[in-house]
């Protein structure tokens, strides 16, 4: 039994999308047990629309909802909110494995740090989605939104965290780490990048390959791309917008003429495969890496399928024992391997 | 006759791509006259491969070449280099209309400022490509690489420059300007974004619609997206990488089975149209906006078609009298319209 909390009130389409996604997830994975936190009546009404095994979905009534405009450090005090109540359960109950939320990114991060707590030695958790790349693998982009302002020491820790994720989560032997920059040459970038480059080159235990550019994320030039949360977020969302535009163009062009409609019949499989590769709802959210249990931040505009994929991702991370593996890698390794050769301030 | 300088030695594929691109351009546009700056013998050898009207392509021998690792402020002193020689000709000869280079971005920017000179009142030129969006129009992204480090006053000037470009270049009446950020809410972003948001909201003559995200560039939520050169570059190249990956997937999937091959025959037109929309070589480079004449920075990895498109773009900008129109908009307007309500430092 894998117990996963879902913040039923989080996201633009909640509770419709969160509840529908939870139902899809339990119907697909017989080991799952979902705890929905949210306004009992609203969540119950949504649940009533679907067929599912009622012994595997539970509602915890939380009358309060945090929205995108709430100040995260204040929001985290609201214990009756669907997100914060979930965090307290995640912290206190050993049998609960993970949390999925499509709600406020800020509150998710602050709650993670203040309530759930960080892996020993980690200063700042970071959002880290696994983005499908053109080599058929995935590129881990860390950070993509948790820390808008970063110092070199933080970027160096992201390199360690991302490497551990690539090893433990995807079996990559010596993950190649690139620093996201506005050019590949060593002298490129702003002072943050210039300083980080210097420190990262000296890090033992991190296979630093130098600067990479935005295009290298999807081209898969490395396994881990390290960014501050601001530019990482810009990269992730730019890619998402490009994918969305292309899906739109495909839809239009492929039904424009009789010829293309006939062609479509022959190419359905190929097109479906292409669509799947472009469908960022399948990414399964971004892992908030650096916390003691898996917390998945799903897109604010998550649809039911997005939530279902994020839940499946959370279950997978739990099954693969990713967090203990990361902790072990960090703790067991020679301390030199993770020395960040710069101060935090 | 439209005389355009092409830095024949600039870019990864020079002089092959620059010369071939110049030939394609003159063969397509009967009004063009191209001046290639570069090593005479090498350029001549490339030119010898093609058929073209020899009275419309000229070579200026420049024995020196600036490469990506040269320090821009030093490189700009090398008057015998293909790029700097071109800049001096552009400055001194009234009948030369524009410059196209795929060479060092840094040297192109420094040369533009120190040799060619800026439009009156403009403190920093910025790279501004016109990116095709899903509304069938284009989104101007300014800056995407000229200024890695920015202050609020610079971003405010980019808003003015971008608006003038949208008006003069694309006839957009009251161009919508968005600030590229890691969320749309007013409180989002790092201190640079927070401060800029405040100032930009107070700007008269700029139709500021608030924060936009990376995805809005291609979805076309606004006409002008203002960014610092660092994150703008990340956005542009992330989009480019996504486009490249998708073209690769298309190529593979559409020839994977007999069915898809048959389908392809019916869908050729639709697929060609889709490809064209994804082909970032067609963007025609990025205008270095803020200088006294059009300077187009083409991609370092430009192929012949990319160079030809950049030349066509430069010719179009000259024909549409974009620079004088921008100057006029800046000069004629009530000074309040362009007041940047913050200091440069």
Q: What is the CA–CA distance across the termini of chain A?
A: 44 Å
Helix content estimate of chain A: 40-55%
Radius of gyration of chain A from CA coordinates: 21 Å
Instruction: Report the biggest beta sheet of chain A as strand number plus sense, adding barrel if it closes.
Output: 7 strands, mixed
Structural class of chain A: alpha/beta
Given the C-alpha coordinates, what overall shape of chain A results?
Answer: globular
- Please report the total strand number of chain A as a whole number: 12
Arrangement of strands in the largest sheet of chain A: 3-2-1-4-12-11-5
Proportion of beta-strand residues of chain A? 15-25%
Q: Which two chains have the most extensive interface, and how many residues on each? A: A-B, 66 and 66 residues
Q: Which residues of chain A sit in consecutive blocks of at least 5 with pLDDT less than 50?
A: none
Q: Mean pLDDT across all residues of chain A, rounded?
A: 90
What does the oligomeric state look like here? homodimer
How many helices of chain A?
12
- Give the SSE string of chain A: EHEHEHHEHEEEHEHEHEHHEEHH
Description:
The structure is a homodimer of 345-residue chains. The first copy, chain A, is of the alpha/beta class and 345 residues long. Chain A is 46% helix and 16% strand. Chain A contains twelve helices and twelve strands. Chain A has helices at residues 16-28, 40-47, 72-75, 82-92, 105-116, 152-170, 191-202, 215-219, 229-253, 258-278, 304-319, 322-332, and strands at 2-7, 32-38, 57-61, 96-101, 126-128, 130-132, 138-142, 176-180, 207-212, 224-226, 286-289, 295-297. In chain A, the strands form two sheets. Chain A has a seven-stranded mixed beta sheet with strand order 3-2-1-4-12-11-5, sandwiched between helices. Chain A has a five-stranded mixed beta sheet with strand order 6-7-10-8-9, sandwiched between helices. The radius of gyration of chain A is 21 Å and the shape is globular. The model of chain A has no long low-confidence stretch (mean pLDDT 90). At the A-B interface, helix 8, helix 9 and helix 10 of A face helix 8, helix 9 and helix 10 of B.
């Amino acid at each position: 039994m894998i117990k996963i909390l879902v913040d039923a009130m989080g996201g633009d389409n909640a509770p419709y999308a969160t509840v529908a996604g939870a139902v899809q997830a339990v119907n697909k994975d017989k080991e799952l047990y979902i705890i929905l936190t949210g306004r009992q009546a609203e969540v119950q009404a949504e649940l009533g629309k679907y067929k599912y095994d009622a012994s595997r979905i539970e509602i915890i009534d939380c009358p309060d909802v945090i929205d995108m405009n709430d100040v995260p450090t204040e929001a985290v005090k609201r214990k009756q909110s669907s997100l914060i109540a979930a965090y307290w359960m995640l912290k206190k109950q050993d049998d609960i494995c993970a949390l999925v939320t499509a709600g406020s990114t800020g509150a998710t991060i602050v709650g993670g740090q203040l309530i759930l707590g960080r892996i020993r030695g980690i200063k700042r958790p970071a959002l880290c989605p696994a983005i499908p790349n053109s080599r058929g693998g995935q590129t881990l982009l860390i950070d993509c939104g948790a820390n808008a302002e970063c110092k070199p020491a933080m970027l160096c820790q992201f390199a360690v965290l991302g490497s551990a994720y690539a090893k433990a989560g995807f079996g990559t032997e010596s993950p190649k780490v690139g620093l996201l920059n506005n050019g590949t040459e060593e002298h490129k970038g702003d002072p943050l990048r210039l300083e980080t480059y210097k420190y990262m080159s000296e890090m033992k235990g991190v296979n630093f390959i130098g600067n990479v550019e935005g295009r290298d994320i999807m081209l898969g030039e490395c396994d881990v791309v390290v960014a501050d949360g601001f530019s990482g977020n810009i990269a992730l969302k730019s890619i998402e917008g490009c994918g969305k535009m292309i899906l739109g163009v495909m839809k239009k062009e492929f039904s424009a003429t009789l010829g293309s409609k006939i062609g479509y019949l022959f190419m359905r499989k190929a097109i479906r495969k292409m669509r799947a590769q472009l469908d960022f709802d399948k990414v399964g959210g971004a892992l908030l890496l650096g916390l003691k249990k898996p917390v998945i931040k799903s897109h604010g505009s998550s649809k039911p399928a997005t939530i279902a994929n994020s839940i499946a991702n959370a279950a997978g991370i739990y099954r693969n024992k990713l967090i203990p593996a990361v902790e072990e890698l960090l703790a067991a390794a020679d301390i030199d391997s993770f020395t960040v050769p710069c101060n935090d301030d």
